[in-house]
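Input for the complex:
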Amino acid sequence: MPTFVSHPEEVIVLKKRWGQGAADIEKYLELDGYKAVQEAIAQGPEWIVSVMKASGLRGRGGAGFPTGMKWSFVPKVSEKPKYVLVNGDESEPGTCKDHVIFLEDPHSVIEGTMIAGLAIGSKLGFIYLRGEYRYLLKIVEKAVADAYAKGFLGKNIFGKEGVDFDIITQTGAGAYEVGEESALMESLEGKRGVPRIKPPFPAIVGLYGGPTVINNAETIASVPHILMMGGEAYAKLGTERNGGTRLFGISGHVERPGVYELPMGYSLRKAIYEVAGGIKGGKKLKAVVPGGSSCPVLTADEIDVGLDFDQMGKAGTMLGSGGIVVLDETVSIVEFALRVISFYQHESCGWCIPCREGTDWIKKTLGRVYAGGGTKKDVDNVQYLAENMMGRTFCPLGDAAAMPTLGFVKKFRKEFEDYIDGHKAGTPIMTEQQLVGAGH
Amino acid sequence: MSAIANSIFSPEAAARFDKLATIYPVKRSALVPMLLYAQDEIGYVSEAAIQEIAKRLDLFDLDVRNVLSYYSMLRTKPAGKYNVQVCTNISCMLRGGYEILDHCKAKLGIGHKQVTADGQFSLEEVECIGACCWAPAMQVNYDFHDDLTTIKVDAILQDYAEGRGKDVK
Amino acid sequence: MADVTITVDGKKVTAPAGTLLIEACKTAGIEIPAFCYYPGLSLQGACRMCVVRQEKNPKLATACTTAIADGQVFFTETPEITQARKATLQLLLGNHPLDCPVCDAGGECELQDMTFKYGAADSFYAEPKNHREEQKWSPVVYFDRPRCILCYRCVRMCGEGMDVFALGIQNRGSSSVIAPNSPAALNPDDLAHVDCEQCGMCIDACPVGALTSGTYRYKTRPWEMNHVATVCTHCGDGCKTTLGVRSTSDGAEIVRGDNRDKSGMNGDFLCNKGRYAFDFANHDDRITTPLVRNAAGKLEAASWEAAFDHIGRKLRMDVDTRGGETIGVIGGNRLTNEEAYLLQKFARTVLKTNNIDHHRTADHVAFAQALAGQSGRTASLRDTLTSKTVLVVGGDPSNQSPATAWNLRTAVRNSGAKLYIANTEDIKLRRQAKAFVKLQPFGYGALAGFLAGDDSAGSSAVNDVEALKTFRETLKAAEGLLILVGSELRGGDLKKLVEFGLSIPDAKFALLSDYVNSRGAADMGLLPDMLPGYTPLGSERFAEYGKASTPGLDMLEMFDAAAAGKLSALYVVGANPVLRYGIDSAALKDTFVVVQEMFMTETAVLADVVLPAANLYEKAGSVTNHYGDLQQVNKAGDRAGVRSDFEMIVRVADKMGAHIPTLIPFGKGLRSDMGQTRGAQSGEADRHAVWLTAQNLEPRLSPFDPMAILDEIQRLVPGYDKVLRLQLLSGNDQHLETDSTLVQIAGQRKDLVLPSGDTLFTSGTLGHYSAMLLDLQANESRRLPVLDQTAAD
Ligand SMILES: Cc1cc2nc3c(=O)[nH]c(=O)nc-3n(C[C@H](O)[C@H](O)[C@H](O)COP(=O)(O)O)c2cc1C
Ligand code: SF4
Ligand code: FES
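Predicted:
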């Protein structure tokens, strides 16, 4: 089970009910649960969307799209039913925040889903967890059942005539790509997790062809809190155009890894050195992958940057999923880059050529370099491949593989070249034998 | 009455499948969870399971195979009673994931995707399982074990070997 | 949709709003490369070859998924785009075996062409390629996995196009693979197989050589073939097909059938028979020398001269001594119109008999009668693609008229056509139907009656009469209704159904039958009671035939007469009535039988003289499919020792002392400007005409030139007077309407319709000689029992 950590610098909104047994509906109610949704029923869709817009909440799934705006794209009237979809597929390496939300505060996800439903005029929501989260599914299933038992879900919820809302929960079965919103819809429709052509976007044509709002579990879990505290108040916790707080999972070579709630724009350096207790064993920092493995790496000199979507973008990387992975001086970037591309190679859905073949060839080439058979030309080749994947794949997974690769090769080019020359920086972790398995 | 005569699944699983096929706006939606539950019961997705599931959902067997082969948790060959899945992705890697994997290999005497002779354990190197902040981590079947050390792994495997291990289903 | 104008590479392009950019560009002559895009199938956006830059768009867009809107500006060939395509190709080639020199697709491979165009030949991968053994999925479908570029065309073609869903995509990422529906693990031979209709559409759609055809693979290189456009012989749809022909020591062998130029009315469709079952032509059992029964009662090889002489003398004698009415003539459903016409003219004017018939596979006569006096009421095969509403009563198009079924599926899928079906069987097309009425056994007559307004007939047609009423009302209100009628409806029933249809404004009809020219055989008057064009016997129009107005014997009566010793001679051209009608061989013992045939069929073995015949792929002329669409037949294959039925009939007539210029109005110079086209296509005799033209001598049509008879057909046969010669000769189809001047035939005609009962893997007697069809039948028998499955969404 996850070990809980906290730090005085944290600003607690989402974590408000953690560690208090709020998975139990009675406890949740005691802690002001299901008040936001009742307020939402009373105030109506326009109000909900306006609060969400004012909150400056941006999607916590990775892309940071403003949530209120996303909801407002859904057509008011639609021939086909509308749906709310909660993306709990959390698979981006370095990310484990949704894990804790489902564990500690599943009702906040349920309540958020209902509010999203009210906002767009949907009567059915889905909570989709990654297949590995079976034990969390059981917790969520129980929470949903309890909510039904209380009359919070189903027909005439909270006794309000004509207000209906149902929730279906389920898991995937092992596929990173299914975290991509349209691939998730395909999976939910019982198909291979291959993304869809866009446009049309889900807000217009989504699940079963109906208008669909899809949000990350953390995004959804934030919603009840935002309605309770007010959009402006939430927005003020963060920075301009980056409202509120978010969960950052700090992992890797830090003294106190864990999931921390920090205001948007919080300093990355402070997050590593103060919140997470600094580099493990007093070693030197080498690099940081700031928002899940798909984000271009930052070197030790580049960490004076605020943790919000815009500042990270300016710094040439991304806020992503908020999974901060810290690398100390012992890490071989060649090896690390290989492990990252192995993941994307394994997870590419195979639909489009640049991603399917590109990830495969980068992995093969880096694998050879790592095993000692590389030439300098290989470094160029890897860069060429990554550059030619960027922006040209069917869905952003190709970019997610190309971006970190480009980051590693560009920022640590010398290390690659030295490695090829036999001067290996860092302490390799994978053995030759393991390398075969990496990415399977 | 089950929607299918002579189901290969247990009455409980068959009943669950009957229900699953009705809750979605489109029946086919039940496919991925159904495959996983079928695997939980049989240990893998057998040919008979494919055919029954296809029938339950009005699909071609081929449709089921197409979907089945896409998801990495689904398998068509039996795994051990306890499938040990060690994460070696970046956060775990940095905190000893490979050491844990190696340790499991040595301890169980099997490699990636292999099964022990007695069928008790199988081993898999897996991608990130969403326990990065408690790395290194592994799952035995659906149960998470984190902040692992080799000593902790020994105790965990011992527990399972002796039937004391937790097995979420 | 309204037209919009966009700018592509500085050029203004106008097309309806919402047109896919790739299509709009194609129309404007701007080619955008694409692997996964295939017109008419669902969009993929997977190969990324079609990337273009749209002004103000931060990323490259895919032309195959971009719907155009007014004022958009695109660039399709910039250095950036060229680089993107080049990189994509380099990635593809990384694992590609580059075995072009031995690949069937070499020379007509889209990957090869693109690699050439974008100069993506350099490779920077040191790793070995993933090799996989080639797999034989069926006798006709082979899969070479390393060549596959995963464009998914095959998967969509099979699923969306054919409604078969036998191919899928399995695994993911770089392990993704196209997989057939019968996995190795389930087969005793431990090999994967494809259980399907074996149409080969996947092979045609494959842009590379990943899917290859059992009949063609490793046989030749594309540039070593001649390609001849002609018409498939197998079913009533009469698809246009392109035959790949290669010279051999004894003629020209057909090695491939496909439809890649999509120039015919079947568009990109061909079924398995069209694609593979030309192989009967190359069969070793072909008869290549005339055979005459000797004194010992054995058939023995004879010279052409001797054989013709023998037949001529015998027939002359029979006509003179016993009278023409003791001679019977049976024609085939795979003859050209010219041959069928000539045969009945020969019978009527030289043999002086009306004892003429053919194997009737639908009641074309009743159909013509029912539509007498109407115009614009018959449908072309093309209409099946464009009609808004289609009613199919009887028949089983997926099995018997596959192109019709393909068009109907396409219309439903891509143009929202509504399909209604009434059948006694659960035919496969019901899966596309908006409503399906399951009729009681033999319920067609009752249905026709009910539709035509007789409510009391309802309960004999179906269980649920109320539902049938709704069905009828829906149809009555339908816009642009097309009614396809199966051969189950005949005589009065057929007329009633047509009557119902005629009450709906603009409704059109077609009557489905079997074989390429069964409609032509009826149109050309291979009938005992009707002259060409369904003209009554004794009509002024055919005054030049003489005035015999007594109907002759029909097929069965001829055999009865033979059995009774009253048939002196029977002349059979391209038909196998002995097998078809289960004739006792003893019935013919007193009859002189002449058979023009390719093989020693059940009928041929009983003959006194067998003349080796060319098949439809070895001659020129025209055929009329069951819709009434006329198409040109061109000579593709050749076999030493055989002659066209046309030539043989003329030779026999000549030996009988007939006046040939009367039988064949040749040498009249009518439309002689077309001489060259004719000559190039019509075999030896006409090459002479070409030579004459070249020598500045007056072109003379030879007596073996079908075009000479076509002149007469145009002059005399109602409906065929509308033939546009240039349309025909350019290889285009044209729809003809029977212009029946029919007076009602007194009394009830006998129902002699006997459908062929062919499936996708049989084709009448010919099918017995197609190794590929036999293989496919055997392949079917190894199919695993399957659960009763339906299509996925
Ligand atoms: C390859 C890929 C994987 C993704 N995985 C996840 C995921 O695991 N969880 C998630 O919430 N979003 C994931 N996303 C982002 C989703 O597509 C989508 O943007 C998000 O769920 C929207 O929710 P939000 O607006 O609340 O962030 C992924 C995107 C891509 C391209
Ligand atoms: S087999 Fe051919 S058509 Fe099918 S996906 Fe592969 S390359 Fe494309
Ligand atoms: S043709 Fe557009 S992506 Fe393949």
